Amino acid sequence: MSSRNVIDLSGKHVLVTGGASGLGADMSRLFACLGAKLLIADIDGQGARGYAESLGGGAQAVECDISDEDSVTGLTTAAREFGGIDALINNAALIDVARDLDLLSTDLSVWDRTLGVNLRGTMLVSRAILPLMIEKGAGAVVTLVSRQGIAPPLSGKRLSYGTSKAGLIMLARHMAVAYGKLGIRSNAVAPGTIQTARMLAELSPARLEQSKANVLTPYLGTPTDVSSIVAFLISDAARYITGQTLQVDGGVLTGLHE
Ligand SMILES: NC(=O)c1ccc[n+]([C@@H]2O[C@H](COP(=O)([O-])OP(=O)(O)OC[C@H]3O[C@@H](n4cnc5c(N)ncnc54)[C@H](O)[C@@H]3O)[C@@H](O)[C@H]2O)c1
Q: What Pfam families is this protein classified in (predicted)?
């Protein structure tokens, strides 16, 4: 087996947005274990610094609000000083669970904030970091989207979140198409319900049971189920995979509920 077939991130400089908690933190930990050097960017600067310190291995942190242009300029400077970026994980996002409802009921401020962070913010970071990868002649981008960017929940809620994630699927494809010949691969990963600390706190036991019943697997996904797929996608083992949206959701969208 050639080493290209093994997930090895040795020497790769990886930037994870929203890496201070949740899936971003889990990914950062796994990437560090696989040999990557981490730059963690989060609006929670203190959390990011504490987490980077706990990872060791030269992991660094930068406070950044991805929806703010000046803040993203600061991130770009930090990324240059870090030695450039080989892989960008567009992970930071928000969801306003209580107020992100249907088209006729959602307050415009919720729409603006959700699209501003998730879609515009991710576009700003991608636009700032891609040139650093193009300079190196290689790079991988993974954008965390959601099954809700593919199929809206039957409840009719989460208009803003779902629309932002649908837009991100197109942003990920755009980067694959526009910069593929310059050595950039870009893929999206669409998780279903994943048992992060936030999800476990937010969802009632009954709702969790329902989620478990809806997937095709005997279990609900954990953060590592997502992290391992993202690690694979940014590794050289995935060098022929680009422009894809990979659903990591226990097959929840494959079967119809009768
Ligand atoms: N957890 C799930 O079940 C699930 C399912 C589908 C998709 N996702 C997607 O996976 C990604 C991670 O989800 P999570 O559950 O770990 O989220 P989370 O809310 O637990 O963590 C998000 C992180 O992003 C940071 N962040 C928020 N706004 C930011 C901003 N403006 N600038 C910089 N950082 C900011 C937060 O401080 C936090 O550290 C998101 O893109 C989310 O939409 C998660």
A: adh_short_C2 (PF13561)
Q: How far is CA 256 from CA 190, 194, 214, in A?
A: 18, 20, 9
Strand ranges, E, within the chain: 13-17, 37-42, 60-63, 87-90, 139-144, 184-191, 245-248
Give the start-to-end residue ranges of the domains of the chain. 3-248
Distance 227 CA to ligand 1 centre (A): 13
Atom of ligand 1 lying closest to residue 121 CA:
31
Q: What is the pTM of this model?
A: 0.97
- For domain 3-248, the CATH class is alpha beta
CA geometry: angle at 240 spanning 5 and 227, to 5°?
65
pLDDT category at 209 given cuts 50, 70, 90 is very high
